[in-house]
Design goal:
Distance between the termini: 43 Å
Largest sheet: none
Structural class: mainly alpha
Strand content: under 5%
Helix content: over 70%
Number of strands: 0
Shape: globular
Length: 314
């Protein structure tokens, strides 16, 4: 299977995952309580949202590393570290309640939803080791460290835990062509077991628990099964479009929610408030993705990065 063909469904899956994250925040952030049925569905899907995004990034790790160390590092700084810095700063400017610019960990995403970008950046930094060792070795090492290391540093805990999904994807990437050619029995079994776990977890635990091997294994099984089915899906171009601009949807959706609720206050009933929040959030993200996805809001300019690098060499 050609890498270009794989990219279509990877983009679509990334689009699904980031939209599910936005929907979750669209219901969980505006008001103190969430409608029970919606909360259960969102908790059910927590088995897949962030794990799917990290797993897909891991699937593409080898492709990124093959570009060369300099291009690899520059690309991650331009497209991950830069929007993390920009949107962390914007959160301070708009008065985001948990923004704590005096805390160094805040600039790695702690204290808010941008933690994902900090974890992803750390995963890519560790991912350079796959030039020398198999990603499965890093996966096993992170798992052992997760079990042994006790720390109050949330960033370290998040990297060890969520990094497991990233390096599970990097591990599967070495056998991806074989996996997508297997028969349907195993993928169906993986998805069925994961769905059963998601239903149980949503009912008993609420949001999927972390820092335990069982939810990790069952989430990974589900994601691996979904990958098999996604590789056979009919192209959905609008989902691919969202996936290709997932950074825009991820970093921008929460400020739209926050600012909308600041304006609305208690002026409308909750059902109307939810509807307005979702419409504003998605409309705002689509407009940003359509017209500003290559802007300095989301990507450090390539030409400026090149000039900076040349000046440093001189």
């Amino acid at each position: 299977m050609e890498s270009r063909e794989r990219q279509h469904w990877m983009d679509a899956l990334r689009g699904v995952a980031v939209l599910l994250i936005a929907i979750w925040h669209g219901f969980s952030m505006p008001y103190p309580t969430i409608p029970a049925g919606i909360e259960w569905v969102c908790n059910f899907l927590s088995v897949y949202r962030i794990p799917m995004l990290l797993f897909l990034s891991g699937l593409l790790l080898d492709h990124s590393v093959r570009k060369g160390t300099s291009a690899y590092i520059t690309g991650k700084l331009r497209r991950i570290a830069w929007p993390l810095l920009v949107w962390s700063t914007l959160l301070v400017l708009i008065g985001w309640p948990s923004a704590a610019p005096s805390d160094g960990w805040y600039w790695l995403g702690e204290g808010g939803y941008l933690w994902y970008l900090g974890v992803l950046l750390a995963c890519y930094a560790i991912g350079l080791l796959t030039k020398f060792v198999h990603p499965a070795l890093i996966l096993v090492t992170c798992f052992i460290l997760m079990e042994l290391v006790q720390t109050e540093i949330a960033f370290a805990t998040n990297v060890l835990w969520f990094g497991l999904y990233f390096f599970a994807g990097a591990t599967l990437s070495r056998w991806l062509d074989r996996w997508v050619k297997v028969g349907p029995l195993l993928p169906i079994l993986f998805v069925a077991v994961s769905l059963a776990w998601a239903g149980y977890s949503a009912t008993v635990n609420g949001y999927v628990p972390v820092l335990h091997w069982r939810p990790l294994l069952l989430s990974v099984l589900g994601v691996v099964g979904v990958v098999w089915f996604a590789s056979r899906m009919t192209r959905v171009r609008w989902l691919e479009w969202v996936g290709q601009r997932s950074i825009v949807f991820y970093v921008a959706h929460v400020p739209f929610i926050y600012l909308t609720m600041l304006l609305l206050g208690d002026a409308v009933p909750e059902p109307v408030g939810y509807l307005i929040v979702l419409v504003v959030m998605f409309a705002g993200c689509v407009l940003l993705a359509r017209y500003l996805s290559r802007s300095i809001l989301f990507e450090f300019p390539r030409s400026l990065a090149f000039r900076t690098g040349r000046a440093a060499e001189a």
